[in-house]
Design brief:
This is DNRLRE domain-containing protein. Keywords: Signal. The structure is a single chain. With 518 residues, the protein is mostly beta strands. The chain has 4 domains: 199 residues, Jelly Rolls (Sandwich); 119 residues, Immunoglobulin-like (Sandwich), CATH 2.60.40; 93 residues, Immunoglobulin-like (Sandwich), CATH 2.60.40.10; 87 residues, Sandwich (Immunoglobulin-like), CATH 2.60.40.10.
Length: 518
């Protein structure tokens, strides 16, 4: 009981003294028996394999004779762990609560185990200790070294034997619980158990990647090993098998020059599992130079029954290489045969190819573009190995358009914007002719019909004509019957406005045909 109170006090002191975000107690777990049996000298051929009885140990009168008990215990949860303490614990149902019971490492047991066919008694692990209090008696044996050796040898379970330190003389039979106890103070207990205190050594971090800003999220990340900042954020995913026990993690980052000379390191703040990051400070990296970095995981926990802070580390990741490139590309060169710069070019609605080239830059990988006035249209196009690309755009207005283009380099740097102005042309105004009402002359008379004939005047793809008399109702006729009859109502000057319409629906310039009615 004194030991229990001492450990409780140490634990309370630990909680008060330890910074809650820096270190936590080591992880703990327990395993129960896989199988058990006991043997009796008075009935030397009897098997009690996985009996529902209590485990009998020592010498007795009722029942009479000498008894020994065996338990196969699971140690598999300790594989891959750093074991601090392992304790075999049994709960005494009846008998003297004093440390005169020995725990032995034995050979395997099975249904054939009897007094005459006992497993080998390999190693005496001592009489252990007892904790007596609150109407309970616990027997405890520290077996840390034994479990470490067994785990290192690949063992998945161990078999233990309980026997009295002296099986002659005074009769002192003990009965140990083999299933569970519903105790008024301790609650429901499974027994016997193997109790472990351990730490799980962190695994190597995964998904090491560079973020281009100070965010610690998964994005944005560079698509290549070239980064557009001299203060990149390094990040990786850290897993923590002991998180449920309060164990927190850090990620230690290390960066070096291209030859492997370490230039600096930093550790992320202790936190739960997930993505951990650090930013390389300003002034350490130089534009145009290549560097490498790596990361390992480190956990933070408290040595059992002490105030000592400990940390275990994973192996390092492989070196990750990157090159600093903070120099943006220069102005791109833009050309188009259909729509020359600062000139009137192709017919409105005609698709035109615009070619981009990198100018003085040598690492352009794409171009961002936007067309204003004639769209809008915007997008990004990937460049070829020589930094060249092209897009096809269709202007929709017949006045000045401006194409804006920026080059983007391999590190994601965006260069200055180049403006490329051009003007699409319209189809020419159609020709108009009338025998009754000649242009700019007098003819016909009020109420007299007159035919007007329209022709394309070199316009392309004409499918129809539109016209109106004196800004009145707008009418339309197909191009294959380009003659209309107009009847002026009054004498004096009149105006017929005519335009062609091409196959894409664009209008030509308008022809103003003036005539005088007698």
């Amino acid at each position: 009981m004194k030991r229990v109170l001492a450990l409780l006090c140490a634990f309370i002191v630990t909680l008060v003294v330890m910074p809650p975000t820096q270190a936590h107690a080591s992880a703990s777990t327990s395993t129960i028996k896989l199988a058990w049996t006991y043997v009796a000298l008075a009935d030397p051929k009897a098997s009690h394999w996985n009996s529902v009885d209590d485990a009998l140990v020592g010498t007795g009168v009722e029942p009479p004779g000498v008894f020994r008990s065996f338990f196969r215990m699971d140690i598999s949860p300790m594989h891959g762990k750093k074991l601090f303490n392992a304790t075999f614990q049994g709960y005494l149902n009846s008998g003297a609560c004093d440390p005169t019971i020995e725990l032995w490492l034995t050979g395997p047991i099975g249904p054939e185990t009897t007094w005459l066919n006992q497993p080998a008694w390999k190693q005496n692990l001592g009489t252990g200790t007892v904790a007596d209090g609150f109407d309970s008696c616990f027997f405890n044996w520290r077996i840390s070294d034994l479990v470490r050796q067994a785990v290192a040898a690949g063992e998945r379970h161990l078999t233990f034997g309980l026997r009295a330190a002296s099986e002659v003389g005074p009769r002192n039979l003990r009965t140990f619980e083999t299933d569970q106890v519903d105790h008024p103070y301790w609650g429901r207990l499974r027994t016997p158990v193997l109790r472990f205190q351990y730490n799980t050594v962190p695994e190597v971090p995964t998904d090491p990647a560079i973020n281009l800003n100070d965010s610690c999220g998964a994005e944005p990340r560079p698509a290549t090993t070239f980064v557009s900042t001299a203060t990149p954020t390094l990040g990786a995913e850290v897993a923590n098998a002991d998180q449920k026990h309060g164990d927190r993690m850090s990620a230690r980052f290390e960066w070096a020059d291209s030859s492997g000379t370490v230039l600096g390191s930093a550790t992320s703040y202790p936190d739960w599992e997930g993505r951990h990051c650090t930013e390389i400070p300003e002034g350490l990296l130089v534009d145009g130079q290549t560097y490498r970095w790596r990361v390992r995981a480190e956990d933070h926990y408290q040595e059992p029954e002490t105030l000592e802070m400990l940390s275990d580390s994973s192996d390092w990741t492989a070196w990750q290489e990157f090159t600093v490139d903070v120099t943006p590309p220069t102005l791109p060169v833009i050309a188009s045969e259909t729509y020359p710069e600062n000139a009137t070019g192709g017919l409105i609605g005609t698709p035109g190819v615009f070619s981009f080239s990198p100018g003085e830059s040598t690492d352009v990988v794409s171009y961002r573009y936007r067309l204003v006035s004639g769209g809008p249209s915007s997008g990004q196009v990937t460049a070829d190995a020589g930094g060249r690309a092209s897009v096809t755009l269709t202007p929709t207005v017949a006045f000045r358009n401006t194409l804006h283009v920026r080059a983007v380099d391999r590190a994601g740097n965006v260069g200055p914007e180049r403006a490329y102005p051009f003007t699409p042309r319209r189809n020419p105004a159609p020709l108009v002719a009338s025998a009754v009402y000649p242009e700019n002359a007098a003819g016909g008379g009020a109420g007299m019909p007159g035919e007007f004939a329209f022709s394309p005047n070199g316009a392309q793809d004409v499918v129809a004509y539109g016209y109106s008399l004196d800004s009145g109702e707008t009418l339309r006729i197909p191009a294959d019957t380009p003659t209309v009859t107009v009847t002026p109502d009054t004498a004096g000057p009149h105006t017929l406005s005519v335009w062609s319409i091409d196959a894409r629906g664009y209008l030509s310039s308008a022809r103003t045909y003036a005539f005088m009615v007698n």
